[in-house]
Fold:
Amino acid sequence: MENMLVLLHTESDGSLGRMALETLGAARALGLPFAAGLAGGDVQAAADSIAACGATHFFAVSGAAYAQPRYATDAAAAEALTRAAGATLVLAPATSRWNRVMPGVAHRLGGRADTHVTGIAAADRTLRITRWYYRQRMEAVIERAHRPWVVLLESGSAEAYSGAAGTASAEAISVEARTRTEVTGVQAPRSDQQTIRPDAELLLEAGAGWTKNQPDGKPHIGDAEKLILGFLDATQASLGSSKSLVDLSGEGQAVLGFLTHLNQIGQTGSTPRHRKGLATCCHGEEPHVVGWRFVTERRAVNLDANCGWARGKADVVYVADAFEVMAQVNALLK
Ligand SMILES: Cc1cc2nc3c(=O)[nH]c(=O)nc-3n(C[C@H](O)[C@H](O)[C@H](O)COP(=O)(O)OP(=O)(O)OC[C@H]3O[C@@H](n4cnc5c(N)ncnc54)[C@H](O)[C@@H]3O)c2cc1C
Structure:
Protein backbone atom coordinates (compact mmCIF):
# COMPACT_ATOMS: atom_id res chain seq x y z
CA MET A 1 0.00 0.00 0.00
CA GLU A 2 1.17 3.53 -0.78
CA ASN A 3 2.22 5.62 2.20
CA MET A 4 1.61 9.16 1.01
CA LEU A 5 3.01 12.35 2.51
CA VAL A 6 1.81 15.77 1.36
CA LEU A 7 4.85 17.92 1.99
CA LEU A 8 4.21 21.65 2.40
CA HIS A 9 6.12 24.71 3.51
CA THR A 10 4.62 27.87 4.92
CA GLU A 11 4.90 31.31 3.35
CA SER A 12 6.73 34.15 5.10
CA ASP A 13 3.52 35.12 6.96
CA GLY A 14 3.04 31.57 8.29
CA SER A 15 0.13 30.75 5.96
CA LEU A 16 -0.05 28.12 3.23
CA GLY A 17 0.22 29.42 -0.32
CA ARG A 18 -2.17 28.60 -3.15
CA MET A 19 0.13 25.95 -4.61
CA ALA A 20 0.28 24.18 -1.24
CA LEU A 21 -3.53 24.10 -1.12
CA GLU A 22 -3.71 22.85 -4.73
CA THR A 23 -1.33 20.00 -3.85
CA LEU A 24 -3.53 19.14 -0.91
CA GLY A 25 -6.52 19.20 -3.25
CA ALA A 26 -4.74 16.82 -5.63
CA ALA A 27 -3.88 14.45 -2.76
CA ARG A 28 -7.49 14.36 -1.57
CA ALA A 29 -8.73 13.71 -5.09
CA LEU A 30 -6.59 10.53 -5.21
CA GLY A 31 -8.79 9.07 -2.50
CA LEU A 32 -5.85 7.44 -0.69
CA PRO A 33 -4.92 8.00 2.96
CA PHE A 34 -2.21 10.60 3.43
CA ALA A 35 -0.22 12.37 6.12
CA ALA A 36 0.72 16.05 6.03
CA GLY A 37 4.25 17.31 6.65
CA LEU A 38 4.81 21.00 7.30
CA ALA A 39 8.03 22.98 7.42
CA GLY A 40 8.40 26.63 8.37
CA GLY A 41 9.13 29.12 11.13
CA ASP A 42 5.98 28.42 13.13
CA VAL A 43 3.65 25.98 11.39
CA GLN A 44 0.84 25.66 13.93
CA ALA A 45 -1.41 28.27 12.25
CA ALA A 46 -0.89 26.56 8.90
CA ALA A 47 -1.64 23.13 10.38
CA ASP A 48 -4.78 24.50 12.03
CA SER A 49 -5.93 26.02 8.73
CA ILE A 50 -5.98 22.53 7.16
CA ALA A 51 -7.00 20.63 10.28
CA ALA A 52 -10.06 19.22 8.49
CA CYS A 53 -8.25 18.16 5.30
CA GLY A 54 -8.43 14.47 6.14
CA ALA A 55 -4.74 13.90 6.83
CA THR A 56 -4.24 10.86 9.05
CA HIS A 57 -1.30 12.47 10.84
CA PHE A 58 0.49 15.85 10.93
CA PHE A 59 4.28 16.09 11.15
CA ALA A 60 6.03 19.42 11.69
CA VAL A 61 9.52 20.80 11.43
CA SER A 62 9.54 24.34 12.76
CA GLY A 63 11.91 26.95 14.06
CA ALA A 64 13.66 30.12 12.96
CA ALA A 65 16.06 28.14 10.76
CA TYR A 66 13.13 26.91 8.62
CA ALA A 67 11.42 30.26 8.20
CA GLN A 68 13.69 31.22 5.30
CA PRO A 69 14.20 29.21 2.12
CA ARG A 70 17.75 27.83 2.21
CA TYR A 71 19.02 24.61 0.65
CA ALA A 72 20.67 23.02 3.69
CA THR A 73 17.80 23.60 6.12
CA ASP A 74 14.98 22.95 3.63
CA ALA A 75 16.55 19.69 2.45
CA ALA A 76 17.13 18.52 6.02
CA ALA A 77 13.54 19.36 6.97
CA ALA A 78 12.06 17.61 3.94
CA GLU A 79 14.22 14.53 4.48
CA ALA A 80 13.33 14.31 8.17
CA LEU A 81 9.59 14.70 7.49
CA THR A 82 9.67 12.04 4.77
CA ARG A 83 11.55 9.60 7.00
CA ALA A 84 9.26 10.29 9.97
CA ALA A 85 6.21 9.54 7.84
CA GLY A 86 7.86 6.48 6.27
CA ALA A 87 6.56 7.89 3.00
CA THR A 88 6.71 5.90 -0.22
CA LEU A 89 5.10 8.78 -2.15
CA VAL A 90 5.84 12.43 -1.43
CA LEU A 91 3.51 14.90 -3.12
CA ALA A 92 4.82 18.47 -2.93
CA PRO A 93 3.98 21.74 -4.68
CA ALA A 94 6.46 22.79 -7.39
CA THR A 95 7.31 26.05 -5.63
CA SER A 96 10.77 27.48 -6.24
CA ARG A 97 11.58 26.45 -2.66
CA TRP A 98 10.70 22.76 -3.06
CA ASN A 99 11.82 22.55 -6.69
CA ARG A 100 15.29 23.50 -5.56
CA VAL A 101 15.68 20.86 -2.87
CA MET A 102 13.38 17.90 -3.56
CA PRO A 103 15.43 16.17 -6.28
CA GLY A 104 18.38 16.26 -3.86
CA VAL A 105 16.18 14.97 -1.04
CA ALA A 106 15.00 12.10 -3.26
CA HIS A 107 18.64 11.21 -3.89
CA ARG A 108 19.41 11.22 -0.16
CA LEU A 109 16.47 8.87 0.40
CA GLY A 110 17.51 6.56 -2.44
CA GLY A 111 14.33 7.57 -4.26
CA ARG A 112 13.33 9.19 -7.53
CA ALA A 113 11.87 12.61 -8.24
CA ASP A 114 9.64 13.89 -11.03
CA THR A 115 9.42 17.65 -11.51
CA HIS A 116 6.90 19.76 -13.51
CA VAL A 117 4.14 17.23 -12.96
CA THR A 118 0.73 18.43 -14.13
CA GLY A 119 -1.51 15.60 -12.97
CA ILE A 120 -1.62 12.55 -10.72
CA ALA A 121 -4.24 9.82 -10.76
CA ALA A 122 -4.75 6.40 -9.23
CA ALA A 123 -6.42 3.65 -11.23
CA ASP A 124 -6.09 -0.15 -11.36
CA ARG A 125 -4.00 0.02 -8.16
CA THR A 126 -1.41 2.07 -10.06
CA LEU A 127 -0.34 5.67 -9.64
CA ARG A 128 0.24 7.63 -12.80
CA ILE A 129 1.52 11.15 -13.29
CA THR A 130 1.32 13.34 -16.35
CA ARG A 131 4.07 15.64 -17.54
CA TRP A 132 4.75 17.66 -20.69
CA TYR A 133 7.86 17.36 -22.84
CA TYR A 134 9.45 19.15 -25.80
CA ARG A 135 8.14 22.62 -24.96
CA GLN A 136 4.64 21.43 -24.10
CA ARG A 137 4.11 19.56 -27.36
CA MET A 138 3.96 16.03 -26.00
CA GLU A 139 2.23 14.84 -22.86
CA ALA A 140 3.55 11.68 -21.19
CA VAL A 141 1.85 9.46 -18.63
CA ILE A 142 4.43 7.94 -16.30
CA GLU A 143 4.37 5.07 -13.78
CA ARG A 144 7.23 4.25 -11.44
CA ALA A 145 7.90 1.11 -9.43
CA HIS A 146 10.78 2.70 -7.54
CA ARG A 147 10.04 4.12 -4.07
CA PRO A 148 10.21 6.59 -2.44
CA TRP A 149 8.79 8.67 -5.25
CA VAL A 150 8.83 12.47 -5.01
CA VAL A 151 6.29 14.24 -7.21
CA LEU A 152 6.42 18.03 -7.62
CA LEU A 153 3.06 19.34 -8.80
CA GLU A 154 2.88 22.47 -10.97
CA SER A 155 0.56 25.33 -10.08
CA GLY A 156 -2.88 25.35 -11.67
CA SER A 157 -2.99 21.56 -11.97
CA ALA A 158 -5.59 20.88 -9.28
CA GLU A 159 -8.41 22.59 -7.42
CA ALA A 160 -7.13 24.24 -4.25
CA TYR A 161 -8.33 22.67 -0.99
CA SER A 162 -10.58 24.82 1.13
CA GLY A 163 -12.07 23.69 4.40
CA ALA A 164 -12.88 24.80 7.90
CA ALA A 165 -10.00 25.61 10.21
CA GLY A 166 -9.64 23.66 13.43
CA THR A 167 -6.95 22.50 15.79
CA ALA A 168 -4.34 20.17 14.41
CA SER A 169 -2.03 18.31 16.69
CA ALA A 170 1.24 18.00 14.83
CA GLU A 171 4.07 15.69 15.86
CA ALA A 172 7.23 17.80 16.13
CA ILE A 173 10.17 16.28 14.30
CA SER A 174 13.56 17.46 15.44
CA VAL A 175 16.17 18.08 12.79
CA GLU A 176 19.81 18.92 13.05
CA ALA A 177 20.49 21.04 10.03
CA ARG A 178 23.94 22.48 9.57
CA THR A 179 24.28 25.51 7.37
CA ARG A 180 26.99 28.01 6.60
CA THR A 181 24.47 30.46 5.15
CA GLU A 182 22.82 33.10 7.25
CA VAL A 183 19.93 35.01 5.66
CA THR A 184 20.27 38.63 6.71
CA GLY A 185 17.51 40.09 4.53
CA VAL A 186 15.72 39.84 1.22
CA GLN A 187 16.21 42.10 -1.76
CA ALA A 188 13.36 41.92 -4.23
CA PRO A 189 12.49 44.11 -7.20
CA ARG A 190 9.86 46.76 -6.59
CA SER A 191 6.41 45.40 -7.35
CA ASP A 192 6.10 47.59 -10.47
CA GLN A 193 9.40 46.18 -11.78
CA GLN A 194 8.47 42.56 -11.18
CA THR A 195 5.86 41.96 -13.85
CA ILE A 196 5.98 38.15 -14.13
CA ARG A 197 3.67 36.69 -11.49
CA PRO A 198 3.15 32.94 -12.07
CA ASP A 199 0.51 32.69 -9.34
CA ALA A 200 -1.68 35.50 -10.70
CA GLU A 201 -5.22 34.67 -11.79
CA LEU A 202 -4.94 36.80 -14.92
CA LEU A 203 -2.39 37.18 -17.69
CA LEU A 204 -2.26 40.55 -19.47
CA GLU A 205 -0.56 40.13 -22.80
CA ALA A 206 1.00 43.13 -24.55
CA GLY A 207 1.68 42.89 -28.27
CA ALA A 208 3.73 45.00 -30.65
CA GLY A 209 0.68 47.16 -31.50
CA TRP A 210 1.32 49.19 -28.33
CA THR A 211 4.47 50.61 -29.96
CA LYS A 212 3.09 51.08 -33.49
CA ASN A 213 1.87 54.32 -35.06
CA GLN A 214 -1.65 55.01 -33.92
CA PRO A 215 -4.49 56.70 -35.86
CA ASP A 216 -2.81 60.12 -35.37
CA GLY A 217 0.26 58.77 -37.20
CA LYS A 218 2.50 58.64 -34.10
CA PRO A 219 3.43 56.01 -31.52
CA HIS A 220 2.43 56.65 -27.89
CA ILE A 221 4.89 54.60 -25.90
CA GLY A 222 4.60 56.68 -22.72
CA ASP A 223 0.81 56.29 -22.65
CA ALA A 224 1.16 52.56 -23.35
CA GLU A 225 3.54 52.15 -20.39
CA LYS A 226 1.22 54.01 -18.05
CA LEU A 227 -1.85 52.03 -19.14
CA ILE A 228 -0.16 48.64 -18.86
CA LEU A 229 1.56 49.34 -15.52
CA GLY A 230 -1.62 50.94 -14.17
CA PHE A 231 -3.59 47.79 -14.98
CA LEU A 232 -0.91 45.51 -13.49
CA ASP A 233 -0.75 47.60 -10.35
CA ALA A 234 -4.53 47.54 -9.85
CA THR A 235 -5.02 43.83 -10.61
CA GLN A 236 -1.65 42.23 -9.77
CA ALA A 237 -1.97 40.41 -13.09
CA SER A 238 1.10 38.89 -14.72
CA LEU A 239 2.54 40.47 -17.86
CA GLY A 240 3.24 38.45 -20.99
CA SER A 241 4.38 39.68 -24.36
CA SER A 242 4.68 38.68 -27.99
CA LYS A 243 8.03 37.95 -29.55
CA SER A 244 7.71 40.94 -31.85
CA LEU A 245 7.43 43.32 -28.95
CA VAL A 246 10.36 41.97 -26.95
CA ASP A 247 12.48 41.77 -30.13
CA LEU A 248 11.94 45.43 -31.03
CA SER A 249 14.63 46.64 -28.62
CA GLY A 250 17.18 44.55 -30.54
CA GLU A 251 16.17 46.45 -33.66
CA GLY A 252 16.79 49.83 -31.99
CA GLN A 253 13.09 50.76 -31.80
CA ALA A 254 11.42 52.41 -28.85
CA VAL A 255 10.01 49.73 -26.56
CA LEU A 256 8.25 49.35 -23.26
CA GLY A 257 11.10 49.60 -20.77
CA PHE A 258 9.84 46.95 -18.34
CA LEU A 259 9.65 44.10 -20.90
CA THR A 260 12.36 41.49 -21.31
CA HIS A 261 12.57 38.21 -23.19
CA LEU A 262 11.41 36.52 -19.99
CA ASN A 263 7.96 38.00 -20.67
CA GLN A 264 7.73 36.31 -24.08
CA ILE A 265 4.97 33.77 -24.49
CA GLY A 266 4.76 31.25 -27.29
CA GLN A 267 6.59 28.59 -29.24
CA THR A 268 9.99 30.04 -28.37
CA GLY A 269 8.82 31.64 -25.12
CA SER A 270 6.96 30.46 -22.07
CA THR A 271 3.69 28.57 -21.57
CA PRO A 272 2.13 30.14 -18.47
CA ARG A 273 -0.75 28.65 -16.49
CA HIS A 274 -2.99 31.56 -15.61
CA ARG A 275 -6.67 30.74 -15.75
CA LYS A 276 -7.63 33.92 -17.65
CA GLY A 277 -5.81 35.86 -20.36
CA LEU A 278 -6.39 39.26 -21.97
CA ALA A 279 -4.40 39.93 -25.15
CA THR A 280 -3.97 43.55 -26.14
CA CYS A 281 -2.46 44.89 -29.39
CA CYS A 282 -1.33 41.39 -30.27
CA HIS A 283 -2.26 39.77 -33.57
CA GLY A 284 -2.71 36.26 -32.17
CA GLU A 285 -0.49 34.37 -34.60
CA GLU A 286 -0.05 30.65 -34.07
CA PRO A 287 3.58 30.71 -32.78
CA HIS A 288 2.38 33.09 -30.10
CA VAL A 289 -0.94 31.44 -29.26
CA VAL A 290 0.59 27.97 -28.68
CA GLY A 291 1.96 29.51 -25.48
CA TRP A 292 -1.64 30.01 -24.32
CA ARG A 293 -2.31 26.25 -24.17
CA PHE A 294 -3.20 26.29 -20.48
CA VAL A 295 -5.04 29.62 -20.45
CA THR A 296 -8.64 28.50 -20.60
CA GLU A 297 -10.57 31.81 -20.60
CA ARG A 298 -9.25 34.10 -23.33
CA ARG A 299 -10.18 37.59 -24.45
CA ALA A 300 -8.45 39.95 -26.86
CA VAL A 301 -8.61 43.62 -27.80
CA ASN A 302 -7.58 44.36 -31.37
CA LEU A 303 -8.40 46.98 -34.01
CA ASP A 304 -8.45 44.25 -36.63
CA ALA A 305 -11.63 42.16 -36.78
CA ASN A 306 -9.67 39.58 -38.80
CA CYS A 307 -6.84 39.12 -36.33
CA GLY A 308 -5.80 35.60 -35.28
CA TRP A 309 -7.75 35.80 -32.01
CA ALA A 310 -10.97 36.26 -33.99
CA ARG A 311 -10.29 32.96 -35.78
CA GLY A 312 -11.31 30.71 -32.94
CA LYS A 313 -8.38 31.45 -30.63
CA ALA A 314 -10.22 33.62 -28.10
CA ASP A 315 -13.62 33.35 -26.42
CA VAL A 316 -14.30 37.05 -26.84
CA VAL A 317 -12.63 39.60 -29.14
CA TYR A 318 -13.27 43.30 -28.62
CA VAL A 319 -12.67 45.08 -31.93
CA ALA A 320 -11.54 48.34 -30.38
CA ASP A 321 -8.61 50.60 -29.66
CA ALA A 322 -6.70 49.09 -26.72
CA PHE A 323 -5.54 52.55 -25.60
CA GLU A 324 -9.16 53.60 -25.09
CA VAL A 325 -10.32 50.27 -23.66
CA MET A 326 -7.52 50.01 -21.09
CA ALA A 327 -7.91 53.66 -20.05
CA GLN A 328 -11.57 52.95 -19.26
CA VAL A 329 -10.81 49.64 -17.56
CA ASN A 330 -8.17 51.32 -15.37
CA ALA A 331 -10.64 54.08 -14.48
CA LEU A 332 -13.18 51.44 -13.42
CA LEU A 333 -10.55 49.67 -11.30
CA LYS A 334 -9.80 52.81 -9.26
C1 LIG B 1 9.92 29.95 -35.60
C2 LIG B 1 9.09 31.07 -35.02
C3 LIG B 1 8.90 31.12 -33.65
C4 LIG B 1 8.14 32.14 -33.09
N1 LIG B 1 7.94 32.15 -31.74
C5 LIG B 1 7.16 33.11 -31.20
C6 LIG B 1 6.89 33.14 -29.81
O1 LIG B 1 7.37 32.30 -29.03
N2 LIG B 1 6.09 34.10 -29.31
C7 LIG B 1 5.54 35.08 -30.11
O2 LIG B 1 4.82 35.95 -29.61
N3 LIG B 1 5.78 35.08 -31.44
C8 LIG B 1 6.59 34.13 -31.99
N4 LIG B 1 6.84 34.18 -33.32
C9 LIG B 1 6.40 35.37 -34.07
C10 LIG B 1 4.93 35.34 -34.41
O3 LIG B 1 4.75 34.59 -35.59
C11 LIG B 1 4.41 36.77 -34.64
O4 LIG B 1 5.25 37.43 -35.57
C12 LIG B 1 4.35 37.63 -33.39
O5 LIG B 1 3.67 36.93 -32.37
C13 LIG B 1 3.60 38.93 -33.72
O6 LIG B 1 3.58 39.75 -32.58
P1 LIG B 1 2.40 40.79 -32.38
O7 LIG B 1 1.10 40.12 -32.60
O8 LIG B 1 2.63 41.46 -31.07
O9 LIG B 1 2.72 41.91 -33.48
P2 LIG B 1 1.97 42.30 -34.84
O10 LIG B 1 1.86 41.13 -35.73
O11 LIG B 1 2.71 43.51 -35.32
O12 LIG B 1 0.51 42.70 -34.38
C14 LIG B 1 0.20 43.89 -33.76
C15 LIG B 1 -1.30 43.92 -33.57
O13 LIG B 1 -1.64 45.07 -32.81
C16 LIG B 1 -2.90 45.55 -33.28
N5 LIG B 1 -3.02 46.95 -32.85
C17 LIG B 1 -2.26 48.01 -33.19
N6 LIG B 1 -2.68 49.12 -32.55
C18 LIG B 1 -3.74 48.74 -31.79
C19 LIG B 1 -4.60 49.43 -30.91
N7 LIG B 1 -4.48 50.74 -30.67
N8 LIG B 1 -5.59 48.73 -30.29
C20 LIG B 1 -5.75 47.40 -30.52
N9 LIG B 1 -4.96 46.71 -31.35
C21 LIG B 1 -3.97 47.36 -31.98
C22 LIG B 1 -2.84 45.35 -34.78
O14 LIG B 1 -4.14 45.30 -35.32
C23 LIG B 1 -2.09 44.01 -34.87
O15 LIG B 1 -3.02 42.95 -34.91
C24 LIG B 1 7.58 33.15 -33.92
C25 LIG B 1 7.78 33.09 -35.30
C26 LIG B 1 8.52 32.07 -35.84
C27 LIG B 1 8.72 32.05 -37.32
User: Anything to note?
Assistant: The domain at 4-172 is CATH 3.40.50.620 (Rossmann fold). The pocket of flavin-adenine dinucleotide is lined by residues 207-209, 212, 214, 242-245, 264-269, 281-283, 285, 287-288, 291, 301-304, 307, 321-323 (CB under 6 Å). The mean pLDDT is 94. The longest strand covers residues 112-123.
